[in-house]
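Hi there, hope your week has been kind to you so far. Do you reckon you could talk me through the fold, stretch by stretch? Thanks so much in advance, here it is.
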Amino acid sequence: MRAVIVETPGDVDALTIGDVPTPAPGPGEVLVKTVASGVNRADVLQRQGHYPPPPGITDIIGLEASGVVAGVGEGVRRWREGDEVVALLAGGGYAEYFVAPEGQLIAPPASVDLITAGGLLEVAATVVSNLDVAQLKGSETFLVHGGAGGIGTFATQYAKALGATVIATAGSPSKLEHCRAHGADVALDYHGDWVAGVKDATGGRGADVILDIIGAKYLESNVKALARRGRIVVIGLQGGVKGTLNLGLLLSKQATITATSLRFRPDAEKAAICAAVEEKVSPLIADGTIVASPETRIPFDEVVRAHTQLVAGDNVGKIVLVH
């Protein structure tokens, strides 16, 4: 089968397409012929050599994909050949076929085509699982960084569906308008004093929950922007891995910081998250409460362009590789 290969980690020119053996489904696993693969920041980190797959997982990049079931392993009960599925993966999505545990597949939400669905599950699973960790309540204020990206667009809508007030940060007028169009009550330019903007928007109180894709660069500012008993959940490290933290301020606010990774969770946890997405999110997409993020569709053979566009930071919404 054809797959994206990274022989030596590095810049975008490290991405090549070649032939590799087609995987075979083991017990409890499903073989899927790929229709679309979501492109994520974690893919860039893996290509650069900073985010290796868990032990025993293919080194082919790709944390989410959609397609049609081509075969099933022993003990698989829900899925049959020909079923359309969306997958949460620990790796392997940038390929003509991929294998996934049965529990990490869901049916595409009603009214969503398979290409759009290819960029949906990793985002939904990340947001749902982390807002569960943060215990976001409908009466609270939620701040999401990168509000015009795939995570930010989905998180804004999901938090609004929970009843929360949403503040989003973004870096251009068009992206700020995108945030507002997808439900953000307040959209702040991160080039300015967004901490002051959060304080102004909350009457000086601050945000109860912050979903952070930036990491070290925003650590101190995030703590300043928190309300008393606020919670920060770090899910990305675009702004570095080492920062300084005023523990006195954190203590005075009785606040917490949690960092999570979806990729390295046990299969049983991932299956439970996928089930939660199917239960909680699919109906919200079906009734129009959540609208799938705008997407840029790029042919599979142009994977270098996909990574270049993602790294440039100009893209709004999701990038999806079409096979």
About this structure: Residues 228 and 253 are 4 Å apart (CA to CA).
